[in-house]
Design brief:
Largest sheet: 5 strands, parallel
Number of domains: 2
Strand order of the largest sheet: 3-2-1-4-5
Oligomer: single chain
Radius of gyration: 19 Å
Order of helices and strands: HHHHEHEHHEHEHE
Number of helices: 9
Strand content: 5-15%
Structural class: alpha/beta
Shape: elongated
Distance between the termini: 46 Å
CATH topology of the largest domain: Rossmann fold
Number of strands: 5
Length: 220
C-alpha cells in the first residue's frame, strides 16, 4: 500500500466510497498533502456535483486555493448569471415579470456552497453574483429591447440576499478578467449548457482552466 493510499484510508476510517471518488481524493493528497479541511470539502463536493465534468487540473487548482485560504486570502465563490428570456415558440425578448428558475436555483446554490464551506472552517469572502450583461441571445432581435434588460437586472437583484455581492460584467474577455482580478475565486457553474464552461477559460482550457465546479441541476 502506498503512503498516499494509507493516508487516505486513515482519513476515511474504514468508510468505503466509490473508486472515482477515492481516486479524486488521492489527487488532492498528491497535490497538497494531508489536509483534513480540504478533504472534507472535496468529500462534500462529491455529494452535490455533476459527475464527470471536473478534470484533474481543476481538482489541483481547487485544492491549492482551499489549502492556501486564510483571513488574508479567503476563498471567493461566484456565479455568472445571464439574462432571463421569454419562453415560447416564436417569442423573443427579455423577461420583465421576474427571473427564471435557473437564476433562482443559481442564487440558492451559490449561497449554499458558500455557507457549507464556511461551516467547515475555510475562510471565505462574501459570494458574488455576476450578471453577464453582454451574453445576449438573438441580439438582432433583443438589442432593440435593451430597456427590458435593465428591468431584468433589477428583477434579479431583488433575489440577491444581503450577504451576497452583485456586479455587472460588461467585459468580453470574461476569462481573463476573472483569472487576474479574482485569483482565489471558484466559479459555481449555473447555466444548463455545461459545454459552455470551456469558453470561460478561453484558449487556456487545456493548460490552465478556471476552477469551476458543476453542481447537480434540479432540471426544468
Amino acid at each position: 500500500m502506498t503512503s498516499i493510499n494509507k493516508t487516505l484510508n486513515d482519513y476515511l476510517q474504514g468508510k468505503r466510497i466509490a473508486k472515482d471518488n477515492y481516486d479524486d481524493l488521492k489527487i488532492v493528497i498528491e497535490e497538497i498533502g494531508y489536509n483534513k479541511l480540504v478533504l472534507d470539502w472535496f468529500h462534500y463536493l462529491q455529494s452535490i456535483e455533476t459527475v464527470g465534468w471536473r478534470p484533474k487540473l481543476v481538482t489541483q487548482k481547487l485544492a491549492r486555493i482551499l489549502a492556501n485560504a486564510s483571513k488574508g486570502t479567503p476563498v471567493e465563490f461566484y456565479a455568472l448569471f445571464c439574462p432571463s428570456y421569454k419562453k415560447g415558440e416564436g417569442v423573443h425578448g427579455f423577461r420583465t415579470d421576474d427571473v427564471g428558475n435557473t437564476s433562482l436555483w443559481g442564487i440558492e446554490t451559490l449561497r449554499g456552497i458558500f455557507s457549507s464551506t464556511k461551516k467547515l472552517g475555510i475562510p471565505c469572502k462574501a459570494p458574488k453574483a455576476i450578471f453577464f450583461n453582454i451574453a445576449v441571445e438573438q441580439p438582432e432581435k433583443t438589442l432593440g429591447e435593451i430597456k427590458d434588460l435593465e428591468t431584468n437586472i433589477v428583477n434579479l437583484r431583488k433575489h440577491i440576499p444581503e450577504e451576497m455581492k452583485f456586479e455587472l460584467l460588461s467585459e468580453a474577455l470574461v476569462g481573463n478578467t476573472i483569472r487576474y482580478e479574482m485569483p482565489n475565486s471558484i466559479m459555481v457553474y449555473t447555466p444548463t449548457m455545461l459545454e459552455r464552461a470551456r469558453v470561460y477559460s478561453g484558449m487556456k482550457f487545456e493548460s490552465d482552466p478556471l476552477p469551476i465546479i458543476f453542481l447537480k441541476h434540479p432540471g426544468p
